[in-house]
Amino acid sequence: MKRVVLASANPDKLSELRYFLRNLEIEVISVSDLLPDWSIEETGATLEENAYLKARDVAEKTQLPAIADDTGLFVDVLGGAPGIYASRFAGPDCSYENNINKLLQTMLCEENRRASFRTSAVLVSTGMEFSVTGEVAGMIIEKPDGKEGFGYDPVFLPDDLDRTFARCSPEEKHRISHRARAMLKLREMLVASGIPG
Amino acid sequence: MKRVVLASANPDKLSELRYFLRNLEIEVISVSDLLPDWSIEETGATLEENAYLKARDVAEKTQLPAIADDTGLFVDVLGGAPGIYASRFAGPDCSYENNINKLLQTMLCEENRRASFRTSAVLVSTGMEFSVTGEVAGMIIEKPDGKEGFGYDPVFLPDDLDRTFARCSPEEKHRISHRARAMLKLREMLVASGIPG
Prior knowledge:
2 copies of one chain form a homodimer. Chain A is of the alpha/beta class. Chain A has 6 helices and 7 strands. Chain A has one domain (2-193): Alpha-Beta Complex (Maf protein). Chain A is globular, with a radius of gyration of 17 Å. The N and C termini of chain A lie close together (5 Å). The relative contact order of chain A is 0.16. Strand 6 of chain A pairs antiparallel with strand 6 (128-140) of chain B.
């Protein structure tokens, strides 16, 4: 049973990763178990760079394979904003609601509502690394709808669905979201890497 | 049948890659077929960086998945030299023989002959990339032995073999070399990536 470290202290991300990597000969642990005070500034210019920054740092410090991810929301009419800054769009310590309000304000008179969620997930190990991307295209609707999920879920209507991500159960989101798509590719590549075992 | 571009104009590398990626639903073509004048300066600090430089440039220019590799010879007692500069150890336009002579001169009175060959191979595609490494450890012997292969093969004695790489047939080298190890991992990861088809 090989150990793989998630370069995030977020317990929801840990549960999610364990779900997507279930039934493989690996044990997914959190960086918090090995490096309780670990943190890193996400100074990359892209999702992928931020994910690599985190995974490389943790792989080097723990000498174990490390996984990290980063997610952004890219709105066409805003030239890709908020992009990698999605979680801090309305300021450094803002709430999900603050971010949504800022986004809806900014797009108030816009007819073009096209946007996409993208997740970049990476694995860094000795002599091997990879990055994968999961994407879901859709629209930013004009009023929040739904209570599930987090972040921009209440205002994002995926093309392949008749309701927002905030009206999806966690199980449903695990089948269709950008994060799910990235995690399924990550699983395939991880199996091919020969790390499990 | 998907097309994948090798970011190298070297026909031997093209044959080798086609051999390792045989029986997959992909056609491996050379960058020379699409961009006849393509070249790039290998300014990276590591094998992996150099391979990524080449593959990213070709993937961007051709809009096709691109593969690149870089190989180095790392001699323990020389602190890892010639490393990524192995092919230009004795100067910018030197021959294999010049390089070997310089290496043997430099190591003349050294008892520690440990060294390793390493190949980094990468694939860059839309929303996905990976790098793998193949390594063979061995010794630098005192006099060249054998006519097969190229580069430092006549003075490199792999740990798992009773003769130098320059005394191996191409088929044998395709089973045991650092390049072969990298290419087999590349194949596994490529299959997992979902690109073939």
